[in-house]
Design goal:
45% of the residues lie in helices and 16% in strands. With 215 residues, it is α+β, with helices and mostly antiparallel strands. The strands form two sheets. Strands 2-3-5-4 form a four-stranded antiparallel β-sheet, sandwiched between helices. The chain binds flavin mononucleotide (FMN). Flavin mononucleotide binds next to strand 4.
Length: 215
Amino acid sequence: MMKHLLFGILCGLALCGCRSQTSFGDRAADAATLAAGNPVEETIRARRSIRRYEPQPVGRDTLLRILDCGLQAPNGQGRESWEVRVVTDSALLAALDRQYGCYVRQVSRNPKAQHPAAYGAPALVFIACDTTYDLSQVDCGLLGGNMILAAQSVGVGSCCLGGLCRFLNAPEGAELLRRLQLPDPHRLLYAIAFGYPAEMPAAKPRNREKVRFVE
Ligand SMILES: Cc1cc2nc3c(=O)[nH]c(=O)nc-3n(C[C@H](O)[C@H](O)[C@H](O)COP(=O)(O)O)c2cc1C
C-alpha cells in the first residue's frame, strides 16, 4: 500500500516537473491558419532563402525602400552600430564571383566546384558590425531581418551569405574587402543577396521543441 502511494506521489511530482516547461507543438499549425489576412505575418511565412535569381536588376527606388526599412530596425542605445555597403556594379559582382569561386575550389580541394558569390543576384548588401560594441551583431541581424522582409513584401527575394564574408575576411579576400571601405572598428559580418526570384523553394521545417514556455 505504502509502495503504491509513494509511486503515485513520485509520478505526480514527475508530471509537475514536466509541466514546468511546455513547447507549443501543434498549436503552431493554428497560428499559421490565423495568419491569413495579416500581411506582415503572411510575408514572414512566405519568405524563403532564394538561390536562383532573374537577371533583371532591382530598381534603385525599390532598393532604397528596402534599405530604409533596414534602418528602421531597433538598435541598442540608438547607436545604429552598423555600416552598410550596397553593391550593384556588375564588374564588382563579377569580380566577387570569380575570386570567391577560386577560394571555394581551393578550400574544398575540388577543382570542379562552382559557387557564384551571390547566386547571380543583381544586388548585394554587406553589413558590418562595430567590434567595440558587444551587442552590435544583434543590431546588424535586426537590420538585415527588416530588409529581407521588406524585400519579400515587394516581391524581391533574398539570401543571407555568411560564406562569402568568411572569404572576404580571409587574406585571400582582403583586396575586395578594401573596396567596401569599412571604417575602423567595423568588421564585415554578413551579406544579403537581393533580386527577383527564379525559384520558389519549399519551407524547411522548424524545430518547435526549441521554444519552451517556462511556467
Ligand atoms: C547568418 C546566416 C548565414 C547564412 N549563410 C548562407 C550562405 O553562406 N549560403 C547560403 O546559401 N545560405 C546561407 N544562409 C541561409 C540559410 O541557409 C537559410 O536561411 C536556412 O537554411 C533556412 O532556410 P530559409 O531561409 O529558406 O527559411 C545563411 C543564413 C544566415 C542567417
